[in-house]
Every structure is written in C-alpha cells, then in structure tokens.
Amino acid sequence: KLVELLRRPLVKVCGLTREEDVAVAAEAGADLAGFVLAPESPRAAREVLPVPESLLAVAVWVGKAEESEATLDQVHERVEGALRGREAVLLREGERVATVHDLPWEDEDPEHWARAAATEGRVVLAGRLAADNVGEAIRVVRPWAVDASSRLEIAPGIKDHAKVRAYVEAARG
To answer: What is the CATH number of the domain that holds 16?
Structure first.
C-alpha cells in the first residue's frame, strides 16, 4: 500500500455536505474528503461528517482554523472582495503538510499549473479539476495531491456520483 501511495498523488473530493456523497468518494477510492466550514461558501457544510477509515477528513477554513473532527485543516487566506484567496496551507496539528494552489471562483489563469509546478515542497493542486483534465494536470504539475469540488457537482454541495467516480479513476491513471 505504501509503495502505491508514494507512486501517485492523493485524491481529494471537496465540498462534501451529504453522507451519501462521502460514501461515494470512499467507494471510488478517494484518499481525502473535504468539508468547507466557511459559512459564506455555497458549499458550506454544517460540520465534518463521519468518514470511513479509508478516508482522511479535511476541514476547509477561510482566515483561521477552528476546532473540528478533521485530521487535516486547509486554511485559505481571507481576501477583501472575494470568498477566499487562491493560496492555502494544509495543516496537521498546526504543522504545514503542503501548499494548496487553487483558482478563485470562475477566474481564468493560464499560468496556474506552471506556478503550482514551480512551488517547492508538497503541492495540492485544485481549481476546476475533473475527469477530463486531472490526468494532464498530474502529468504537468506532479502534485502531492489533487483536489476537485465544483466540477463534480449537480448543484453546490451536491455531488454527481458518476463525475466523482470518473474523477477518481482518471486521477489514478
């Protein structure tokens, strides 16, 4: 299992708000389950939902992390006039695990992947990833983890189960 994990990036499904979506992410083979705990987000969860042992829970915050049941905290900078900033840090017990490169909602940035690839250390690549582009993103950036949310949805916070399965399968190569 360790050799397999070291050969491929971790796969995160974020913006989870329902137990049935957590179950599909786990069944599909995702490694990380993200719960947005920023009330201003259209994908805000009331709490970190229980996850099976095959998943690690990630609490996603804007500004600063608070107490939660999650194993990891993803903290985005607060940016005036925006829901959140594009940069974030992934923490475990307050210690940095990785840098998160994301795209602000509906922004275009042709240099996004190049900027992520040039980052030192572990990188989590996020921002409009789905089955149709995650394989290429992994090839170009070689991230420690990939993170998808909005392109896996029927509506904000409601996952399309077929899209979740296809994304995880494509990320696995």
So the answer is: 3.20.20.70
